[in-house]
Design brief:
94 residues; alpha/beta; 5-stranded mixed β-sheet; 36% helix
């Protein structure tokens, strides 16, 4: 199961397993983000290359406008995925 919620405060909450089957539903939420935004990974168990691509495309789009995604509350495994992919140099990770 996967869920992505855009909260009233503008923060995005990711829940479950973010894999290739979830890319379109996630993209529809991330495409609504127009400014700097926090993404809460507290309840995310897994992220695939498809999920990484959605985040990277959003970061590039926002960066071109002077904004960014701030990623927070990653578990150890997901943090390692970001590190191995070199994404820890692209994203602000809290």
């Amino acid at each position: 199961m996967f869920r992505v919620d855009l909260r009233e405060n503008g923060e995005v909450l990711l829940v479950g397993r973010f894999d290739a089957a979830q890319v379109e539903s996630a993209r529809s939420v991330f495409d609504k983000i127009a400014g700097t935004c926090s993404v809460d990974f507290t309840n995310l168990d897994y992220i695939s290359s498809g999920g990484l691509s959605v985040l990277l495309a959003t970061q590039k789009r926002l960066g071109d406008a002077g904004h960014q995604l701030r990623l927070k509350h990653m578990n150890r495994h997901i943090r390692e995925v970001f590190k191995y992919a070199g994404f820890d140099t692209i994203f602000e990770i809290e």
